[in-house]
Specification:
This protein has four helices and three strands, in the order H-H-E-E-H-E-H. With about 130 residues, it is α+β, with helices and mostly antiparallel strands. The chain is elongated, with a radius of gyration of 24 Å.
Length: about 130
């Protein structure tokens, strides 16, 4: 073995301790937080009509604080305010738990309401 090979092997074998402030940081992409928010919304939105699309979210992260916008389609009639409030709370909880990120805002946008077949039939309506 040469002296160079021995020195290289020794430097690889040693553990270097780096202070926490010098280690760098983990950055979680906005799209990852958006997927977590979308899944959280799906978990609590409840039963949806067949033609309703699943909830999806868009996220902007700035200094480890997320602003989330969740887009929903819901069956009607329903308590829209209560369902949106449940979505907001659950999104905040899941993002904090899974990513360790604060959520400053969750805006829930109801894109479309779908008349449930039983309610439409009771009103004498057809599609």
């Amino acid at each position: 073995m040469t002296a160079e090979a021995t020195e290289a092997g020794e430097s690889r074998g040693r553990l270097t301790v780096v202070a926490p402030g010098e280690r760098g940081a983990t950055r979680i992409a906005d799209r990852v937080v958006a997927k977590i928010a979308s899944q959280a919304a799906r978990e609590v939105v409840g039963e949806l009509p067949d033609e309703a699309g699943p909830p999806h979210a868009t996220v902007v992260v700035h200094h480890d604080v997320a602003r989330v916008r969740v887009h929903l389609e819901l069956g009607y009639p329903t308590d829209i305010g209560a369902r949106c409030a449940r979505v907001r709370r659950h999104v905040v909880e899941r993002v904090r738990a899974l990513v360790g990120m604060e959520v400053s805002e969750v805006a829930v946008q109801v894109e479309r309401l779908h008349l449930t077949p039983a309610h439409g039939a009771a009103q004498g309506r057809t599609r």
